[in-house]
Amino acid sequence: MEGASFLRTDANTPVNIDSKSYDLAKRNVEHPDRWAFDAAASHLYLLMKNDSYARYLRSELYKEYLNGTKKR
């Protein structure tokens, strides 16, 4: 399964998830089904919602974007 390459310790672009979600996803890869990555996806969503998105809204990149659209 291709998604498993993001869970390897030597992955080029590993995902940053908690150990519980990581272990569950690793086990699910051995016997994959459509819900194999749900725990990891939920954890990533919460990280993005509670941390990354808020930082993005405060970022200079986002402020520049807003200023660019207001000038039009």
Instruction: Let me know the average pLDDT.
Output: 80
Proportion of helical residues:
55-70%
The unreliable regions are: none
Based on CA inertia axes, which overall geometry fits? Answer: elongated
Q: Alpha-carbon distance between the termini?
A: 46 Å
What is the alpha-carbon Rg in Å? 17 Å
Helix/strand class: mainly alpha
How many individual helices?
3
> What is the N-to-C order of secondary-structure elements (H for helix, E for strand)?
HHH
Count of DSSP E strands? 0
Task: Tell me the strand percentage band.
Answer: under 5%
Summarize the biggest pleated sheet.
Answer: none
GO biological process, one term: negative regulation of signal transduction
InterPro entries: RGS (IPR016137), RGS6/7/9/11 (IPR047016), RGS_sf (IPR036305), RGS_subdomain_2 (IPR044926)
Keywords: Signal transduction inhibitor
Protein name: Regulator of G-protein signaling 7
Describe this structure as you would to a colleague:
Pfam families: RGS. This is Regulator of G-protein signaling 7. With 72 residues, the protein is mainly α. It has helices spanning 19-30, 38-58, 60-71. α1 (19-30) crosses α2. The longest helix is centred in the middle third of the chain and has 21 residues, at 38-58. The protein is elongated, with a radius of gyration of 17 Å. The relative contact order is 0.11.
